[in-house]
Design brief:
Layout lengths: L1 E5 L3 H12 L4 E5 L6 H11 L14 E5 L5 E6 L6 H6 L2 H5 L5 E4 L13 E7 L4 E7 L1
Parallel strand pairs: 2-5, 2-6, 4-5
Antiparallel strand pairs: 1-7, 3-4, 6-7
Helix pairs in contact: 1-2
Length: 137
């Protein structure tokens, strides 16, 4: 599945994404630096009811949020991780096993954590305002 969207349509794209996700809860996002991974994940969090979405957890590795209805979800950024063991030590594996929505940037930094049940997404730039999101459901 592919979604193409302008940045001013990102909230609608997030709504479409979640509607198509079905029972899936773990999503990885790959793409070059500046492609919009964090921006899209923040839109997903807003759509799911997170009121105070922060930026990327580049240094904290994991941001956990509560939605208005009390559901916990995770936004992870593995850019500064040095392999699967570092990710496990940082608590990434524990978060993934919770069965909650988990949105992970830079999964290639800890490939041993992501099995076949994970939905792999790749986001790319079309131009400075337009993005393409390839979703492997």
């Amino acid at each position: 599945m592919e979604l193409m969207f302008n940045l001013d349509e990102i909230d609608y794209a997030a709504e479409q994404f979640i509607a198509s996700a079905g029972h899936h809860r773990v999503f990885t996002f790959s793409g070059e630096m500046g492609a919009g991974k964090t921006t899209f994940i923040c839109a997903l969090c807003r759509h799911l009811g997170v009121q105070e979405v922060q930026g990327s957890p580049t240094f904290s590795i994991i941001n956990d949020y509560l939605t208005k209805s009390g559901i916990q979800l995770y936004h992870m950024d593995l850019y500064r991780i040095n392999g699967t063991q570092d990710a496990i030590a940082a608590g990434v594996e524990d978060a993934l096993l919770q069965g909650r929505y988990s949105f992970v940037e830079w999964p290639e930094m800890a490939p041993g954590l992501f099995g076949e049940e994970v939905v792999r997404c790749e986001i790319g730039l079309i131009d400075e305002n337009q993005r393409i999101l390839k979703i492997n459901l």
